[in-house]
Write a structure and sequence with these properties.
mainly alpha, 5 helices, binds protoporphyrin IX containing FE
Length: 153
């Protein structure tokens, strides 16, 4: 049991690193440079390719966060947890919903717009995706702090 909980904490932490760290890199480093250096016909297919690869890892991270999080909560804590865990679950629910929306709506439209070289439409979709990623980045950073430091309060 202890080993299963230890493994769950490790996977939970790794999933956090992948999802939140990936959003940080995409938003803070990749996007500003790509936007200032590349024109839309190069920039939009590049960003689509980057996001396509990253989002596969986000799906895996979400599955791991919920699977391991519930396992720690129910198995390790017997369902009795501090407010920080409830806060984490609530924010994770919002983040997951935002990602599912992003995947099925603006990202699907971005793929179609890039395929038909409709650059203004693709640019608008990418701008929407950027807003959602920024929101999830802020929420993800708050959640990571709650998960790591919340137990001390
Ligand atoms: C965006 C989603 C999430 C992020 C970024 C996140 C982040 C974290 C982090 C950084 C920790 C500390 C891990 C450590 O110290 O090694 C943690 C702990 C934990 N998380 Fe999450 N988490 C998320 C979602 C969830 C979900 C969905 C659940 C439950 C369903 C959950 C339940 C827990 C529990 C029970 C702990 C242990 C808290 C403690 O020991 O006091 N988390 N989380």
């Amino acid at each position: 049991m202890t080993q299963a909980i230890a493994l769950s904490y490790a996977l939970h932490q790794l999933a956090t690193v992948v999802w939140v760290g990936g959003m940080f890199f995409a938003h803070m480093a990749l996007r500003p440079v790509v936007s200032s250096v590349l024109e839309p016909p190069l920039r939009l297919p590049l960003m689509l390719g980057v996001l396509r690869r990253f989002f596969r890892w986000v799906w895996l991270s979400i599955a791991l966060l919920w699977g391991t999080g519930l396992w720690i909560f129910l198995g390790g804590m017997g369902g009795k947890a501090g407010g920080h865990v409830h806060l984490m679950m609530a924010i994770a629910l919002v983040m997951t919903a935002l990602f599912v929306y992003l995947w099925f709506v603006p990202f699907r439209h971005l793929k179609a717009a890039v395929a038909s070289t409709a650059w203004p439409a693709a640019g608008a979709r990418l701008a929407r995706i950027r807003q959602i990623i920024l929101t999830n980045l802020i929420l993800g950073l708050i959640t990571a702090v709650a998960g790591a430091a919340g137990r001390f309060f």
